[in-house]
Description:
By secondary structure, the protein is an alpha+beta fold. It is built from four helices and six strands, in the order H-H-H-E-E-H-E-E-E-E.
Amino acid sequence: MRKLQLRLAVTALLGLSAVPAVAAENPAIAAEIISLVRQQWDAEIAGKPAPKQAATMANDYTEFGEDFPVLFAGKPLMIRYGQAPSSSKTVYAEMLNPKVQVYGNTAILTYNYLGYSKGASGEIKPSLSKSSRVYVKDGARWMLVHAHFSHATARS
């Protein structure tokens, strides 16, 4: 009897693994995920403390950023990085071409970032990036578990 149960379990698992992953379209989840990013940007622009900006990051958050060719691992590291002095301040952030793919309790957001930052001498500089963020539903909350940002150039 036990061998039969094991065989059925293995067969079921193998059968499930053959099903292709297909993203669900869920406008409500997409709006919620996009709103979380905008809340983070608003906190940054308003000069809120780094822990407030990282409120939706999971403790084991990871990131490939634009400025350093290394993997940042852990929310505490990201908070320390966010508290470091900077020669510029974000004054505007916009999300272009957002796409949210939902796979069960996982949501992947990809978009183009357009931002402006103000330097120490007052000059305004644009910033263009290609961005991906991965969120996982933890209870009732979506938590940011990974992000990847890379510079983009404005070429035709």
